[in-house]
Structure formats: structure tokens, C-alpha cells
Design brief:
The complex is a heterodimer of chains A (109) and B (119). Chain A contains no helices and 10 strands. Chain A has strands at residues 4-7, 10-13, 19-25, 34-39, 46-50, 54-55, 63-68, 71-76, 86-91, 104-108. In chain A, the strands form 2 sheets. In chain A, strands 2-10-9-4-5-6 form a 6-stranded mixed beta sheet, with no helix packed on it. In chain A, a hairpin with a 3-residue loop joins strand 5 (46-50) and strand 6 (54-55). Chain B is mainly β and 119 residues long. Helix content of chain B is 0%, strand content 51%. In chain B, strands 2, 4, 5, 6, 9, 10 and 11 form a 7-stranded mixed beta sheet that branches. Chain B is globular. Chain B starts with a strand and ends with a strand. The chains are: A mainly beta (109), B mainly beta (119). The A-B interface holds A 33, 35, 37, 39, 44-47, 50-51, 54, 56-57, 88, 90, 92, 96-103 and B 35, 37, 44-47, 50, 59-62, 95, 99-100, 103-107, 109-112.
């Protein structure tokens, strides 16, 4: 089973700042089947990034993903007020389980 | 509008059973793999189960294997999760989610249904 470890647990930043979130896998994630989701309180998760670096439909270009193998990064270039939320990475390769990381909370400083 | 709507959650005693449903609309349900994901109060996301478009491939998390059964009825555009032998640790919001046909990430999510296991 692939374990995903996200860091930091909490990121305290101000609007306009750059956010860099990390997701490290315990073994290589095949074919970059790595996704990032955003979740706000009381809402379902929303897909941001798939295939490690492709933005989902309707996602602003301030969100970008990078990485391969075991190290992946979600970058938010300039934080907007609506970006303060919890972010999860997930590996969704063909072999289950399709594990999630424990999440990184991006909070207003 | 592409939409998933879960139902069937509620309060159940330990050892009891519950059946969750997820009604799909706005897309060709029979063409997509589907998933259940849960989130315990104040905790992160946990993948629970997946089913392929024709039900040929079914997978479960170890935490629910042998107790939960995923199924689908493509004629009714519906996904199900039969949950037996429920435990307190199964208390969570349960989401159904579609796996995108091109890239398999979970691109459409329902609003979730709450399951509480308590005596």
C-alpha cells in the first residue's frame, strides 16, 4: 500500500503570498496518477490537479502541480481569499487502495 | 447538470446495517467507474471502495473488506453501498465520486450523507 505524507500540516499565509504544499509517497506513484483536491468546510472535495500537473476543468492557472516518482508539489502562486482551505493529495493508480494524504490546511495569517 | 446525490445515511447501532444510495444525473453513468470515499468528523479523506463501469472490477479498503458491498444499477443510474456489521469507527460522511473516464481522478463528487454508528 502506498502511503502519502503531506507537509506541512498547516500553512499560515497572507492573501497574495505563494503557497507550496508537499506530498511524498512511500513508493513510486505509477504514471503520475497523483491528484490534488481542495476542500472547504461543509463542502465536498473539488478536483484541482490530476496526472500530477494537469489542471482540472475550470481551475484557475494560479494552481499548478509538479513532481514525479515519490515527490509531488502543489503551488498556489498568489493566494486569493477563497483559496484558504484544506488540500489533499491522492494516488489513484490501477492498484487499490486509492490512498489520500492526511491533508494540509492553508489558513489566513 | 452533472450531479451525484447521496441518500440513506442516518443513526444506526453498532452491529447494524445501512444501505447508501447515490443517484447520478447529467452524464452517461454506465460509462464511468464509481467510488465511495468517507470522512470521519474532523478527519481526512479515506477511500472506501471502487466499482468499474460494468461491475467487473470491485475493490475495497482493508478497513471495510468483508463488511461492505459496493454495487451499481446502470439502468437506474445508481450506485450503492451496503454496510453491515457497522462499528463506531465507521461514523463518517460518505461521498460518492466519479472517476473521470480519461484520467481516473475523482472529478465529480456528491454532497455526502452522514452515517453515525452509536448505541
Amino acid at each position: 500500500e502506498i502511503v502519502l505524507t503531506q507537509s506541512p500540516g498547516t500553512l499560515s499565509l497572507s492573501p497574495g503570498e505563494r503557497a507550496t504544499l508537499s506530498c511524498r509517497a512511500s513508493q513510486s506513484v505509477s504514471s503520475s496518477y497523483l491528484a490534488w483536491y481542495q476542500q472547504k468546510p461543509g463542502q465536498a472535495p473539488r478536483l484541482l490537479i490530476y496526472g500530477a500537473s494537469s489542471r482540472a476543468t475550470g481551475i484557475p492557472d494560479r494552481f499548478s502541480g509538479s513532481g514525479s516518482g515519490t515527490d509531488f508539489t502543489l503551488t498556489i502562486s498568489r493566494l486569493e481569499p477563497e483559496d484558504f482551505a484544506v488540500y489533499y493529495c491522492q494516488q489513484y493508480g490501477s492498484s487499490p487502495p486509492k490512498t489520500f494524504g492526511q491533508g494540509t490546511k492553508v489558513e489566513i495569517k | 447538470e452533472v450531479q451525484l446525490v447521496e441518500s440513506g445515511g442516518g443513526l444506526v447501532k453498532p452491529g447494524g446495517s445501512l444501505r447508501l444510495s447515490c443517484a447520478a444525473s447529467g452524464f452517461t453513468f454506465s460509462s464511468y467507474s464509481m467510488n465511495w470515499v468517507r470522512q470521519a468528523p474532523g478527519k481526512g479523506l479515506e477511500w472506501v471502495s471502487s466499482i468499474s463501469s460494468s461491475s467487473s472490477y470491485i475493490y475495497y479498503a482493508d478497513s471495510v473488506k468483508g463488511r461492505f458491498t459496493i454495487s451499481r444499477d446502470n439502468a437506474k443510474n445508481s450506485l450503492y453501498l451496503q454496510m453491515n456489521s457497522l462499528r463506531a469507527e465507521d461514523t463518517a460522511v460518505y461521498y460518492c465520486a466519479r472517476a473521470n473516464g480519461d484520467y481516473d481522478a475523482f472529478d465529480i463528487w456528491g454532497q455526502g450523507t452522514m452515517v453515525t454508528v452509536s448505541s
